């Protein structure tokens, strides 16, 4: 216990930081569900109001700010390697809330077939979270400005930052010049920036907490440097994540980004803040086992579930003959069901005036009938 008191770390501080991180991730998941509900409600009711004029969207935004604030403060109390893997709690909560709000009615065997692996993934995430929290590092330093500078100028950190910069430049070259828009490349860029983010966030959060306790840290230049690094890395992370979301599915991005971001964050905490310095091999192995279980659980939760497409006949019009045709080869160009009257892939906008399509109903000419018709027509003219 003397060691913990000298280094400013204790089981109580770790518990506070862990609970704050879990609370923040749960709150962020709830806020995202509320904001999603706001967008869906506006689209379903065909409300002309903007989403930022609704109370539900603003309540979701407030909960997001509170959750991110709790995550931010948690870095000041617990080691970085404990806080970073707790993002799996957000994935777990989102999965449970999505299942609750989905309200699908299906038989038990169908439910087990569709959601069995997701339920197993939730168990893995819960078990892995317990392992890496229980056997993770228990000691961490009080990050005063002088301590942060001492870590920053150490040769392990300088070597780590050099390797990270080289790797980032190579990935950026292949991404920009070679057009390597692979999900691994983009999310590796995000993870490398994320390691800088968590390093700077932990330093800024710790110095702000020390300042609130009466030990002024805001007038040191390293505080301003860390603030700039934190904001710049967050902005560029958002840009790369936006590009990834445009190219790939959200479930794939969530899984790969969680693995890469957690891995680089743990490495950054181990190298920059030396958080595994006084840990034995058994605790480190159990910590890694818990993290691996979280990786597996997130993979099972975020896997892509493709539902079989049911047959929906659709009708098209042959413009040459005006003959309606019923197709029976599956929903190839079947439109979405939006309550409006439409054929094929032509959607009738509710605000637009429907256009009448001319239909040619002429039959093939017949010699006898055409002669009789011309004879009768000429007789009528003579009369």
UniProtKB/TrEMBL annotation:
Identify the stretch(es) annotated as Disordered: 358-383
| Cellular localisation | Membrane
Spans through the membrane: 15-35, 56-77, 83-102, 114-133, 153-175, 182-208, 220-240, 252-275, 281-301
Q: Which Pfam families match?
A: Mg_trans_NIPA (PF05653)
Keyword flag Transmembrane helix: yes
Q: Principal place where this protein is found? A: membrane
Q: Which GO terms describe its molecular function?
A: magnesium ion transmembrane transporter activity
Q: Topology in the membrane?
A: Multi-pass membrane protein
Say which domain of life the source belongs to. Eukaryota
Q: Which UniProt keywords apply?
A: Membrane, Transmembrane, Transmembrane helix
Q: Name one GO cellular component term.
A: membrane
UniProt lists the family membership as follows: Belongs to the NIPA family.
PANTHER family, per this entry?
NIPA-LIKE PROTEIN 3, PTHR12570
Record-given protein name: NIPA like domain containing 3
Supply the source organism's classification: Eukaryota, Metazoa, Chordata, Craniata, Vertebrata
């Amino acid at each position: 216990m003397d060691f913990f008191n000298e280094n400013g770390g204790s089981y109580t501080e770790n518990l506070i930081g862990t609970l704050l991180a879990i609370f923040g991730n749960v709150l962020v998941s709830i806020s995202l569900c509320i904001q999603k509900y706001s967008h869906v409600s506006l689209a379903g009711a065909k409300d002309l109001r903007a989403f930022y004029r609704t109370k539900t969207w603003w309540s979701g935004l407030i909960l997001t700010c509170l959750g991110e604030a709790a995550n931010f403060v948690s870095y000041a109390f617990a080691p970085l390697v404990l806080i970073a893997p707790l993002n799996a709690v957000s994935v777990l909560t989102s999965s449970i809330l999505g299942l609750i709000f989905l309200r699908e009615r299906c038989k038990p065997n169908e439910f087990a077939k569709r959601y069995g692996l997701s339920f197993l993934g939730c168990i893995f995430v819960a078990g892995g979270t317990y392992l890496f929290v229980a056997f993770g590092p228990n000691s961490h330093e009080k990050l005063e400005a002088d301590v942060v500078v001492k870590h920053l100028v150490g040769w392990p950190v300088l070597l780590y930052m050099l390797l990270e910069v080289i790797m980032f430049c190579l990935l950026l070259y292949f991404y920009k010049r070679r057009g390597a828009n692979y999900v691994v490349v983009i999310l590796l860029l995000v993870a490398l920036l994320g390691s800088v983010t968590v390093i700077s966030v932990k330093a800024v959060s710790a110095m702000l907490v020390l300042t609130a306790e009466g030990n002024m840290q805001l007038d040191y230049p390293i505080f301003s440097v860390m603030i700039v690094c934190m904001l710049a890395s967050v902005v560029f992370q958002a840009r790369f994540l936006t590009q990834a979301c445009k190219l790939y599915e959200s479930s794939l991005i969530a899984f790969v980004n969680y693995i890469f971001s957690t891995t680089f964050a743990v490495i950054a905490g181990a190298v920059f803040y030396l958080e595994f310095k006084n840990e034995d091999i058994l605790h480190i192995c159990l910590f890694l086992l818990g993290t691996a279980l979280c990786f597996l659980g997130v993979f099972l939760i975020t896997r892509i579930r493709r539902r079989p497409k049911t047959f929906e006949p659709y009708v098209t019009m042959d413009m040459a003959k005006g003959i309606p045709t019923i197709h029976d080869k599956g929903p190839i160009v079947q439109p979405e069901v939006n309550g409006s009257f439409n054929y094929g892939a032509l959607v009738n906008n509710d605000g637009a005036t429907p256009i009448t399509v001319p239909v040619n109903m002429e039959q093939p000419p017949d010699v006898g009938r055409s002669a009789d018709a011309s004879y009768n027509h000429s007789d009528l003219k003579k009369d």
